[in-house]
Structure formats: C-alpha cells, structure tokens
C-alpha cells in the first residue's frame, strides 16, 4: 500500500446513507489501525529519549526547592512502567495532528474541494492551540501549582516527599488537560460551520456555558484547589467569548456569500 493511500480521503458512494453497515465498521477499523500505528511509532521515539523527557517534566519541580528535587520510586518496575506512561502521553502530543487527520478521514468523507482545502489549516490551528495550552500550563501554571502545594504541605508541618508515580501522573494529566481545553474554539467553530449552533444560540446560552466550563475544569484538573480551577476556567471562558464573536463574523460572511 502506498503512503499516498494512507493519507487520502475515502471516496464516498453516491448515497452515503445507503452504504452497508459492515463497510462503515471496516472504515472505523482501518482508522483505528492507522491511529494506533501512528501513536505506537511516536511512543517508540519518545521512549528512546525518556531520560530527556524525564528531565523536561521534572524541571518545574526542581525549580521549587531542593527538598523535593529527588523523587522517590517505591515500585521495583516504576522505571519502566512510568517511562511507558510518559512515552504514551508524549506520543499523543507529537502525533496529535496525524490523529486529527485520520479522524477527519473517517468522519468527513464527503468534503467538497473547498472544504478539503481548509482542512489542513484547520488541523494546524488545532495543533497550535493544543501546543499553546500545553506551553501555558508547563511554563506558567504548573510551577505555580507545584509551589502552592509545596508551601501548603510545609505549612502543616509535613515534609514534602513525593513519589515518581504521583508526580508524573499529576503533571501529565494537568498538562494534557490544559492542552485539550484550548481545543474549545476549534470545536465551537466546527459546530458553527456545520450549522449545529449559531451566534444567537451561543450568546443566549453564555451563562450556562460558563457553568459547564467550570464543571469541565473541575473534571480535568487533578487537584481540587480553587486557584487551579480558576486558572484553567478563566482562559476557557475567554476562548468561548472569542468564539462567540468569531461565530458572528462567520455567519455574516456566509450570509453575504449566500446573497451574492
């Protein structure tokens, strides 16, 4: 099979609704296989550089203080199991644009030529937002969160002694959750593009959206403190507000195109 066939969109039949159910399952199976192979390759690459990856993720902790600079490994196989977990999450970050593309191949097989031309910029924007969310969390929010819990633990008279499993589980969930939260504009604009939501609907349901954002932030954040919750919810609320105005411009543009 040629590489071009892997990255090409499947040709839809004349009537997509008449396609047999088993063929849809075959398309789903092939999409899962391509995503799994891509993720596996990314994991192998990340596992080969696991020492560098560990140093990168442990850098915010080392900047807090020397008392917790050395993590404790309580399990015999922690070095391998945690390395696989880190390689998995890092592989998701590296292969994220390819995973989005393979998902688009399955969900959007009947794109027009104009829509296909905008697919790659949309994937690049989505990946850029994901990286911005990851970077904001890693360079700004994560060190402040670690420092907060470090001082909070000391204020109770306890000595911070964190294990590698606890630390890396916290960091990976926190960073990836923040990156996925920055995908909100892409999701909203896609719903507007396909007519599922409108500018009027988004503006009318703004209070409910804020509540849902705080609920989602509560689920994503690995810690129950209010500071982390607000630090994640506030950018999402600002992104949602920007989506309302972008949806307004999109609807105006589509209305002008339709009238012309």
Shape: globular
Radius of gyration: 22 Å
Helix share of residues? over 70%
Structural class: mainly alpha
Order of helices and strands: HHHHHHHHHHH
Largest sheet: none
Strand content: under 5%
Can you count the beta strands?
0
Q: Count of DSSP helices?
A: 11
User: How many separate domains?
Assistant: 2
Low-confidence stretches: 13-17
How widely separated are the two ends? 44 Å
Mean pLDDT: 79
Short note summarizing the structure:
The chain is mainly α and 260 residues long. It folds into two domains: 1-182, no CATH class; 183-260, no CATH class. The protein is 77% helix and 0% strand.
Characterization of this structure:
It is built from eleven helices and no strands. The termini are far apart. It is globular, with a radius of gyration of 22 Å. The longest helix has 37 residues, at 119-155. With 260 residues, it is mostly helical. It folds into two domains: 1-182, no CATH class; 183-260, no CATH class.
Compile the SSE list and pairings.
Layout: H1 3-6, H2 21-48, H3 50-62, H4 78-107, H5 113-117, H6 119-155, H7 164-181, H8 184-193, H9 199-204, H10 206-220, H11 226-259
Helix pairs in contact: 2-4, 4-6, 4-7, 6-7, 8-11, 10-11
